[in-house]
């Protein structure tokens, strides 16, 4: 079984996002795992994070101002892999930082670092001639995004080549916006699960254990990002304790639906 | 790849590689056949957008294909161009500039200089051509709201203008720094009924206003049309902006035939995102005797880190929905552009220019802030025309180009906009207090 399969086999999983290089990333990641996160998404900072709202935009800027390089992100990933051999790790970011040295280079380095999958916000299936094949060639999953605007006609293209899990972006918008109505999430997840065999995780706008618990009733995973990134901003080097507390509450809510 | 050698202007022109045949209906060996069906100009262009936007830009393409075939669409476009924008814009023989550069050039050199006077358009620049085309598309698609990004405010003013003309509410995204340095245009937009949204993130200039416009669009795709201001962004924007701006080159072609009975030998235009340049160039791309020079903003010099010359100083990458040349570091982080001209202050350019650069069909040259300032003043003094600082970059290529071209050659410069908006910047650069 892959790490993803193991993580999702137990029932609804908690997927936690933070930005690499924002605060003490190793300590922050350890806090997420200690709190009960089942899958980690590590954001690769980019100067122009077009799909992110203010919280994650600012995290990107803090990380870049702290001097975070792609080499640092890969090092954080490989050190994480040594400390947490079982927890699936996803790199999430934008195309330009992933292809700057070529898609093959990125796939190879990510594989060496022990990364399990990659989410690239701005490479739709139509433009995926290089990154997806390079990742799959190194045994990594390309995790695609489905959105409220992905209709039945496009869905097969989105699913084709997707593995690990499918990330359902529950609102048409950027990260950190208000959560979508539960009813629309239920309908969308049902539609996606009917069309695919991989787990479906739902994100964008999920901040509280109550919201997470509602989503965990219907989806295979719940993704939380901006709420965690806000804690890093607020508490700086003290963030790990706070991250651990919020993650525990979220994990409890999600795992209660198992 | 087959090549032909350019003839004519004697500018040491490079061999011209001929484009491979990309589509079945394209003319053989044409430079005008792209983008291909997937929106690519060779390796450039494409649709690098978040999934939320994909269905919308596919819809836009479908609707544009229908509009392209619809005589009623173009009839409305032409009528507005004539009576609202004031086209055709004149092709003006610039006698004193011609004499001036002939005087400086070696004997027998110094071509006739013509200005394509886009600065005489309503709102003072070429930007309105594209805005008219896009708002007609927005209306066809039943969209109820308009958004746009702007740097100097020229595209913002042009968008606010067409939004007012058609009675659609309009939001203009503009970097906080640009709002500060372009106050007259901010006020113009407000007078025209637009809401100006300040972008506080990143470098607070054009690229960040585009990020925020895209963020807003993603959240409002159902009822909002995004009027992109240059020949960049995800397919089909580079193509449709080019098509709307091609009116510049089509008119130039007719006008020079009327005045001179032959095609020009050299076309010159400034390249920010590349819309005024591609508008002038595109109708001539398959005329091998017509050479073309695109001018990039060289800022303090391309050897410094303060310039906006993405072809000269950048490399291919992915930003704002397309693959194109970008100013970036080795990790693919976008670096900040600098130009004295706010309309050229962008770390990328449209994908068709990246392709024309690599194919060798167009020669791209950087011009520094101080060269542009000098040309700005020269044009005021010799021709009685205050050009936009963007256009002054194109004019600043004249000393070199005219020195190499024979006196019986014809050169056309695109005066893309008027310089009223720039007088504060120029005064400051010249150390004059207003
Ligand atoms: C007068 C003028 N010329 C040129 C430009 C550069 O844009 P583009 O390269 O799309 O023509 C601008 C942009 O604001 C402008 O206002």
Question: Helices, strands, pairings?
Answer:
The complex is a heterodimer of chains A (258) and B (434).
Chain A: H1 3-9, E1 13-19, H2 25-35, E2 39-43, H3 54-65, H4 70-83, E3 89-93, H5 95-99, H6 103-112, E4 117-120, H7 131-137, E5 141-142, E6 145-146, H8 155-159, E7 166-169, H9 182-195, E8 200-203, H10 209-216, E9 221-224, H11 226-235, H12 239-255
Parallel strand pairs in A: 1-2, 1-9, 2-3, 3-4, 4-5, 6-7, 7-8, 8-9
Chain B: E1 3-5, E2 15-17, E3 40-41, E4 44-48, H1 54-68, H2 71-85, E5 91-93, H3 95-104, E6 112-117, H4 127-140, E7 145-150, H5 154-166, E8 170-175, H6 176-181, H7 183-191, E9 195-199, H8 206-219, E10 224-226, H9 237-245, H10 247-260, E11 266-270, H11 275-281, E12 291-299, H12 310-313, E13 315-319, E14 321-326, H13 351-359, E15 363-368, H14 369-383, H15 389-395, H16 398-404, E16 410-415, H17 423-429
Helix pairs in contact in B: 2-4, 3-14, 4-5, 4-9, 5-7, 9-11, 10-11, 14-15
Pathway (chain A): Amino-acid biosynthesis; L-tryptophan biosynthesis; L-tryptophan from chorismate: step 5/5
Function (chain A): The alpha subunit is responsible for the aldol cleavage of indoleglycerol phosphate to indole and glyceraldehyde 3-phosphate.
Active site (chain A): 41, 52
């Amino acid at each position: 079984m892959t790490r993803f399969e193991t993580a999702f086999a137990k029932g609804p999983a908690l997927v936690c996002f933070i930005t690499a290089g924002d605060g003490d990333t190793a300590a922050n990641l350890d806090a997420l795992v200690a709190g009960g996160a089942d899958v980690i998404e590590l954001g690769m900072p980019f100067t122009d994070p077009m799909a992110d709202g203010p919280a994650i935009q600012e995290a990107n800027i803090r990380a870049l101002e702290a001097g975070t390089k792609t080499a640092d992100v890969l090092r954080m990933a490989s050190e994480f892999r040594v400390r947490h051999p079982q927890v699936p790790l996803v790199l999430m970011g934008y195309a330009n930082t992933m292809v700057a040295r070529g898609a093959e280079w990125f796939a190879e380095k990510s594989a060496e670092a022990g990364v399990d999958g990659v989410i690239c916000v701005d490479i739709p299936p139509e433009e995926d001639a290089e990154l997806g094949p390079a990742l799959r060639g190194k045994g990594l999953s390309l995790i695609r995004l489905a959105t409220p605007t992905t209709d039945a006609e496009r869905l097969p293209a989105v699913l084709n080549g997707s593995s690990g899990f499918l990330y359902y972006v529950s609102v048409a918008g950027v990260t950190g916006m208000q959560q979508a109505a539960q009813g629309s999430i239920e309908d969308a997840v049902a539609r996606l699960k009917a069309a695919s065999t991989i787990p479906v995780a739902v994100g964008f706008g999920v901040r509280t254990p109550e919201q997470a618990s509602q989503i965990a009733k219907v989806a295979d995973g719940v993704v939380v990002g901006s709420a965690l990134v806000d804690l890093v901003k607020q508490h700086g080097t003290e963030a790990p304790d706070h991250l651990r507390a919020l993650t525990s509450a979220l994990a409890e809510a999600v795992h209660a639906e198992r | 790849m087959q090549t032909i050698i350019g003839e004519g202007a004697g500018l040491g022109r490079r061999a011209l590689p001929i484009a491979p045949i990309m589509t079945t209906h394209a003319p053989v060996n044409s430079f005008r056949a792209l983008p291909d069906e997937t929106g690519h100009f060779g390796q450039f262009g494409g649709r690098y957008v978040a999934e939320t936007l994909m269905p919308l830009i596919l819809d836009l393409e479908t609707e544009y294909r229908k509009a392209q075939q619809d005589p009623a669409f173009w009839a409305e476009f032409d009528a507005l161009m004539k009576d609202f924008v004031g086209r055709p814009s004149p092709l003006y023989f610039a006698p004193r500039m011609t004499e001036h550069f002939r005087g400086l050039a070696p004997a027998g050199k110094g071509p006739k200089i013509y200005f394509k006077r886009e600065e005489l358009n309503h709102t003072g620049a070429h930007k309105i051509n594209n805005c008219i085309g896009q708002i007609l598309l927005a209306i066809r698609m039943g969209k109820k709201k308009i958004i746009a990004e702007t740097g100097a405010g020229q595209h913002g003013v042009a968008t606010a203008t067409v939004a007012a003309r058609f009675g659609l509410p309009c939001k203009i995204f503009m970097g906080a720094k640009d709002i500060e340095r372009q106050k007259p245009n901010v006020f113009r937009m407000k007078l025209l009924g637009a809401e100006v949204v300040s972008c506080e993130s990143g470098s607070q200039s054009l690229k960040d206003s585009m990020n925020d416009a895209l963020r807003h669009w993603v959240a409002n795709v159902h009822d909002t049309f995004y009027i992109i201001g240059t020949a960049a962004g995800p397919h089909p924007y580079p193509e449709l902006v080019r098509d709307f701006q091609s009116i510049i080159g089509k008119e130039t072609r007719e006008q020079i035939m009327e005045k001179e009975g032959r095609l020009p030998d050299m076309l010159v235009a400034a390249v920010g995102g590349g819309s005024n340049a591609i508008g002038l160039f595109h109708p001539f791309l398959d005329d091998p005797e017509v050479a073309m020079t695109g001018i990039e903003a060289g800022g303090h010099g391309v050897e410094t880190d303060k310039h906006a010359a993405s072809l000269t100083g950048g490399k291919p990458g992915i930003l704002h929905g397309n693959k194109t040349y970008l100013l970036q570091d080795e990790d693919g982080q976008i670096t900040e552009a600098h130009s004295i001209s706010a309309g050229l202050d962008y770390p990328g350019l449209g994908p068709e220019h990246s392709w024309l650069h690599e194919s060798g069909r167009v020669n791209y040259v950087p011009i520094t802030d101080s060269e542009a300032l000098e040309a700005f003043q020269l044009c005021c003094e010799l021709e009685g025309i205050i050009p936009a600082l963007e256009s002054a970059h194109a004019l600043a290529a004249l000393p070199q180009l005219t020195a190499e071209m024979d006196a019986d050659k014809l050169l056309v410069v695109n005066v893309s906009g008027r310089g009223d908006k720039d007088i504060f910047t120029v005064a400051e650069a010249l150390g004059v207090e207003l």
